[in-house]
Amino acid sequence: MHPKQELLEKLTGIRSSRKSYYKELNYVVEEMKKKNKQLEIINQLTKIRINADWADVSAYLAEQLYHLLSFDVFVLTLVEDGSLAFYASQREQQSWLNFPLTAPLDRKLPSSVQELNSMLQTSYPDWHITSVPLQSRLQRSFGFLSLLLGEQQQDDQEQLILFQQIAEHIGVSVENILLFKDVSKKVGIEAQLVQSAKMAAIGEMAAGVAHELNSPLTAILGNAQLLMRQLSSEPLQRMTKDIYQCGVRCKKIIQNLLTFSRQEEYHFECLSVNELIEDVLVLIGYQLTVSGIKISKRLSDEALLFQGSRHQIEQILINLLLNARDALQGVPNPVITIESFRHQTADGSFVGVSVHDNGVGIKQEALAQIFQPFYTTKAERKGSGLGLSVSLGIAESHGGKLTVESEAGEYSIFTLLLPNYENEENAGE
Question: Would you say the pTM of this structure is higher than 0.85?
Fold first, then answer.
């Protein structure tokens, strides 16, 4: 460069201005990249599945927020059924996993961020905690998001503002999930009412049919017994005995229909799982075998007792067996295996019944939805989509569980678990 031009640039400050310009330009570019990254993450945060489990929601939020904010533990705080629930997630290797948080669960939603932080401080006394509220469209708080850092540090105002802005977007998604769960619960209750009304109508019809058949059947059994005493020749004696035995079987079916139709059977009593299975098979076993289905029973030798409603548990078993029958249509060598057993879990001792079929199975994407009201994989007019939803509700009202395991084109196993009555007795002593 010419000495005169260099002297002129020094005197006018052109060189220093150029450096400042490029420095500021780089700063603006970096800020734009940062903002774009934030917008990308915020966009991801709005893609939470509407039917997601809260533990999965917490882990997903933690994974996305970790790209923007510094923390070691993420906590989603909500009120469920009047109790405070904490869903905490912590990073393990490359993924975020949910874990139980030791905190008071019987309290109402905190009225302020400070109150929530004090509650979390009991479990994490020396940690730095930053919390922001989740608010509805009506500006009512329904939960909190909390970031916990293992080392104390000064509050970063810029990060706090960003966290608050993110919470506004997350709040919309979380509120939608809360509304979906609330609506699903109400739909489930309505489905149970519809199914109960349907079962009541069937019960009345069954009671009427049973009473109509009872009178002529009594005459058939009485006359058959008289003939058996009078007839001495072997062929006639054997034929009369067959008539009598078939009449006794019909009598037992009618008795089961009457029991099934009685609405007062909703009261809880001590019941045997094995006896219920036998009673249900008397009711619909013939219907299954004439469809070409082999019934295999594997009943436990020990007494499997539980407290429950005979009518309602029979309703579950009938539902499961009829679903298994439908899954076996057109399948070569169809078999339904019904098994009773004792099952021990961390929650206690249970008696269990499993219904296994080698039918068409259920696709994996449908497994998460089959217990939802009005969802069905059956052809139109062959299912209402209420059976499994109502069965799950009955199982849970008994303190039990109804689960499914299936492989498309291979098999399905539905398992009903009910609290063991003997275990409850021992616990009360």
Answer: no
Query: Terminus-to-terminus CA distance in the chain, angstroms?
Result: 101
Task: Tell me the C-alpha to C-alpha distance, in Å, between residue 268 and each of 130, 271, 307, 311.
Answer: 49, 9, 6, 10
CA angle at residue 118 from 114 to 123, to 5 degrees?
145
Closest CA to 325 of 356, 354, 298: 356
Strand spans (E) along 81-177: 83-92, 95-99, 128-135, 141-149
**The tokens 């640039």 sit on which residue?**
9
Chain Cα centroid distance, residue 411 = 21
Only one residue has tokens 């594997």, namely 298
| Joined tokens for residue 123 | 């479990």
Residues 124, 86: Cα–Cα separation, whole Å: 14
Residues 271/307, Cβ–Cβ less than 8 Å = yes
Per-residue burial over 87-119, b if 16 or more Cβ lie within 10 Å, else e, is bbbbbeeeebebeebebeeeeebbeebeebbeb
Strands (E) in 180-293, as ranges, are: 269-272
Quote the percentage of the chain above a pLDDT of 70: 76
State phi, psi for 326 to the nearest 5 degrees: -65, -35
Q: How far apart are CA 71 and CA 61, in angstroms?
A: 12
| pLDDT tens readout for residues 48-67 | 777 778 888 888 888 888 88
Handedness of CA 318, 242, 296, 339 (dihedral sign): positive
pLDDT digits (tens, 9 = 90+) for 74-105: 999 887 766 788 889 988 877 888 887 765 54
